[in-house]
Amino acid sequence: MSGKDYSALAHDIVDKVGGPDNVVSLYHCVTRLRFRLRDGSKARRDELKHTRGVLSLVEGNGQFQVVIGSEVENVYDAVQAEYRFPSPTEDGDGAVDRAGADGGEERKPNIVIRLFNTLSTIFNPVIPALAGAGMLKAVLVILTTYDLMSADGSTYKILAAAGNSVFYFLPLFLAVGSARTFKCNPFISLAIVGALMEPNFTGLMKNTGDVVDFLGIPTVLMGYSGTVIPAILSIWIYSHLERLLRRFVPKSLEIFLSSMIALFVMVPLSAIVIGPLGVYLGNGMGEIVNFLSAKSGLLTGALIGGGWTFLVMVGIHWGIVPIMVNNLATRGYDVIRPMIAAATFASAGAALGAFFRLKDKEEKSLALSALFPALLGGITEPIVYGISVKYKRPLIAQVIGGAIAGGFMGAFQTKAIVYVFPALTTLPAFFGDTFAVYCIGIAMSFVITAVLTYMLGLGTQDADAGIGDAAASATPAVPVAQPETVIEASGVDLAPCVAGRVVPLDSVADPVFAGKAMGDGVAIEPTEGQLLAPADGEVKVVFPTGHAIGMVCGGVEILMHIGIDTVNMQGEGFTPLVKPGDHVTVGQPLVDFDLGLIRDRGYATTTMMVVTNAAESGPVRTVIDASGTADADTEISATATTNVKEA
Q: Taking every annotated instance into account, which residue ranges of this chain make up the domain PTS EIIC type-1 (predicted)?
């Protein structure tokens, strides 16, 4: 995106998700707006996907997610400045999905998705503090390791306090996030969790697992600093207790009685049951991952490095954060983060490979601009949706490169010492005895994916063209049809309808044309914005939006369609030069269209020319030159005898 005013994009997005009345709640993560909609059928998905500034849509996970990229916070602020939508913590139930993919039926996603949604809502506000504190801790490790700062000095201790505070008091941060998510009093929530870290309580414990007595009930003591699950479980249970107290405690006594009862019940309950259970549960999840990593780090790393991108695509990757944070709190290191780094740098490699493959200057610029946020900030969604998913083959390369590098780092038990987003700027977070392995691993991921992306190509002739004249001439865009597809010589010869490069019809990104449901023919990636008559004949149909023309030429019915999904442009950029009933000659201009505007609106410019009545006459024979260029010698020959079909 360019410019500083996001109000127009904000208004456009809200309008295309069904208007403000269709929005139940909204919040954002690092790269996407996460809507809950009342009626999913009201969202204009095709229009939204092609909105400038929107990278992609992700549905499911209980949400309607609009992927923006690194500008998401600016867009979110612009939306909220005008509409002030509630967050999931304010609308009644952050885990409910009222926007079914195929309609307005209100339903809840499965329990796993709801759990991941809840964890995402709790952790998202804490992530910046975790990442910043983590980097500060990593820098201090380097400074003290190389004797650039004394660990006994006051400067170090002050900075160490800044770095350690988020991790030591993490349960308090999570208490606030949980209170917002579960809609209960945040200050009482802080008091409940804070009691587990108060000196009177911590002073009872000499060693983890010590047992003390509370009203005759044995209480196992645990250290709760840096833990994740106990705070979340405690506040979830407290939220139900608070709702129960509201029903029975008189309003006149509520100000002190509700909070007193809550503290009297929840603090002992947390100390006796919830806290130890949460510690064991958190440790158990970490132990499972660590066990798998220890048994087969190669396989675990390959699965995480190759599969992480898909978790990001459906937006449930935040559900893994508690395991990583718990590993850091209990072990002092985490083995999952380096495996994830393999996927991050694989995305960056896909962007670099695509940059060298792409021909269009604007698309090359997009690839390059998406590369740096990934390398420097660990933000990969612009690459995933703008390149990998769009062109498909880079996604394959990304999975392969990430799996190889992830397996490599997993095999060597590569460690992260603090929580950060993997990037070049966060290298200190991986400092230690496996730092060299980490550097080799991310370099492997980046290089392997970049090379594979370049070798595999992007899957579209428009993107792959222009790599070099030798390469273009060595590989025909469309092979000459085999002898058995040649029809009678009495057919009509059709010249190309636009100047450009011929591509196979079955390769275009439109299933109707690619499946030849409209008929057989060719597709051309245009280099000039003018549609021409392919033969002498009569214009039968001029679509109101100007993006398509139907003709009859000597009994052959021809449909020419400029671009894919360009009907959504509502005629903008298209100027028809003929009308139904006009008789035209070969090469006569039919439509002027703005190639640049079509690309700016996010649409493919691929132009299809098909014979709609070829089914009655036999297959269409395609004749092209070795380079696949649609010049004066390029033609398709066909015979047909029926009326024009309007599509």
A: 117-472
Residue 420 reports pLDDT greater than 90: no
CA distance 356 to 347: 15
From the options 1.10.3730.10, 2.70.70.10, 3.30.70.1060, 3.50.50.60, give the CATH code of 478-638: 2.70.70.10
pLDDT at residue 33 in the model: 87
The winner for highest mean pLDDT among 135-149, 436-450, 522-536, 628-642 is 436-450
The whole-angstrom separation of Cα 205 and Cα 211 is: 8
Domain boundaries of the chain, sorted by first residue: 7-109, 169-293, 296-459, 478-638
Cβ–Cβ under 8 Å, residues 347 and 309: yes
Q: Looking at the predicted structure, is the pLDDT value of residue 549 above 60?
A: yes
For residues 14 and 23, give the distance between their C-alpha atoms in angstroms, rounded to a whole number: 8
- Catalytic amino acids? 29
What's the CA gap between 539 and 551, in Å, rounded?
5
Which run of H or E residues covers position 532? Answer: strand 530-532
**How does residue 472 score in pLDDT terms, banded at 50, 70 and 90?**
very low
Using left for φ > 0, alpha for ψ between -120 and 50, and beta otherwise, residue 555 falls in left
Among 234-238, 262-266, 422-426, 467-471, whose mean pLDDT is lowest? 467-471
DSSP H or E segment with residue 58: strand 56-60
443 vs 256, higher pLDDT: 443
Mean pLDDT of 87-98: 47
Q: What is the CATH number of domain 7-109?
A: 3.30.1360.60
Give the model confidence (pLDDT) of 152-174 as tens digits. 889 989 998 988 888 888 889 98
Q: What is the DSSP string of 361-407?
A: HHHHHHHHHHHHHHHHH---HHHIIIIIHHHSHHHHHHHHHHHHHHH
The answer to whether 593 and 530 are in contact (CB under 8 A) is yes
Conformational region of residue 60, where left means phi above 0, alpha means psi within -120 to 50, and beta covers everything else: left
Instruction: Please give the span between the terminal C-alpha atoms of the chain, in angstroms, as a whole number.
Output: 35
Tokens at residue 146, please? 């190389």
| CA–CA separation, 370 and 34 (whole Å) | 21
Q: Are 476 and 376 in contact (CB under 8 A)?
A: no
pTM score, two decimals? Answer: 0.50
Find the mean pLDDT for residues 25-52.
83
Task: Report the alpha-carbon distance of residue 162 to residue 608 in Å, rounded.
Answer: 61
Alpha-carbon gap, residue 435 to 405, rounded angstroms:
14
